Amino acid sequence: MLKLIKDVSVYRPEFSGKKDVLITDGRIALIEDQINLESLDPSSYDVTDGSGKRLMPGLIDAHVHITGGGGEGSFKTRTPELMLSDCIAGGITTLVGVIGTDGTTRTMTNLIAKAKALKEEGISCYCQTGSYQVPVKTLTGSIEQDIILIEEIIGAGEIAISDHRSSQPTREELARIASDARVGGILSGKAGVVNVHLGDSPDRLKLIEEVVETTDIPITQFVPTHINRNEGLLESGITFAKRGGYVDFTTSTTKEILEGDETKCSRGLKKMINSGVPVEQITFTSDGQGSLPEFDAKGNLTGLKIGRVTSLYKEVRDAVLEEGIAFEDAIKVATSNVADVYKFTGKGRVAVGADADLLLVNESDLEIESVMARGQWMMKDKEHLMKGTFE
């Protein structure tokens, strides 16, 4: 069935004015000032009134523990896997699944299976190969082969550095990972980037910087995440981004963590932009279903909570409403910027020929009203039309 959204304010993410948008076969077919379907059989199309709403691309969350994460407090603290309804509530239409600290009981086979399940349930899902550990625990035995041969795998990660839970990789080991991922990406037409977990160590981005300075690997081969973990890391991230690197903020947090040294994402985004970092170098991800552990000075676990994918849009919205960032800039960090970093053709933009992954948000309070993924309404007027298989 054709779907027509009429008289809606279109953000591509750039504002394009009031438009009518026609969707067919899971893609955007037309964007015009006015589209008239009255000559067609009314049963062949569905019309949605977009007046009073903004149309924007569906969110891309490129760092989610889709099979669950955690375990830093033993087996009982392993977090549950992601459910489809959480994604829909958060306006997320595309995901990238990762494995974190636990690369033993959380396996690549399970990660791929969960990605395929989410795709069957109606959204788009990709994966990174590996986990915190080095050597990287891959699916086929090779980073390059994983990226080339496995449809869902687009890069490597999340490789941990500057953290007491990491394998303490050397410069040579990180360079080899980046090289293998890069070649795999080149040969398969994928991004082949390396998602790098950053901990609290004062080394911060030092290992990545050493690889960039001593090899031919470009700075854009790395996506360092958790850049808002502490003020010192945020400052290092500003310098890194000004050199042309990408930086990724983590939106999931707790009140206790924010009362420490962590910077709220919306506030950190404003600081980076005001410091001269192009907004296109910045992304937000949720770290959804990942554990949010708290450690004391000796590395002992003192608390544990769970990340939520719904935090992604909340921080985008707060960037507009609390920090005064333009809507079209704020939404880039979870739409077009992510699509560009990960080479997701047809994602992250409202454009003719692009996938019909779309959000309708209220003009007044920017709350998500409706969610469309691959041309199907998943939520309409805040009513969930689709749920996961076991929800």
UniProtKB/TrEMBL annotation:
SUPFAM superfamilies: Composite domain of metallo-dependent hydrolases, Metallo-dependent hydrolases. It is an enzyme of class 3 (hydrolase). Substrate binds at residues 70-72, 101, 132, 165, 229, 291. It is found in: Cytoplasm. GO terms for molecular function: beta-aspartyl-peptidase activity; hydrolase activity, acting on carbon-nitrogen (but not peptide) bonds; metal ion binding; metallopeptidase activity. The active site is at residue 287. It comes from Alteribacter keqinensis. One of its GO terms (biological process) is proteolysis. Its EC number is 3.4.19.-. Pfam families: Amidohydro_1. It comes from the Bacteria. This is Isoaspartyl dipeptidase. Belongs to the peptidase M38 family. Keywords: Hydrolase, Metal-binding, Metalloprotease, Protease, Zinc. GO terms for cellular component: cytoplasm. Its main location: cytoplasm. Its cofactor is Zn(2+). Residues 55-377 form the Amidohydrolase-related domain. Binds 2 Zn(2+) ions per subunit. Zn(2+) 1 binds at residues 63, 65, 287. Catalyzes the hydrolytic cleavage of a subset of L-isoaspartyl (L-beta-aspartyl) dipeptides. Used to degrade proteins damaged by L-isoaspartyl residues formation. Carboxylation allows a single lysine to coordinate two zinc ions. Zn(2+) 2 binds at residues 197, 226.
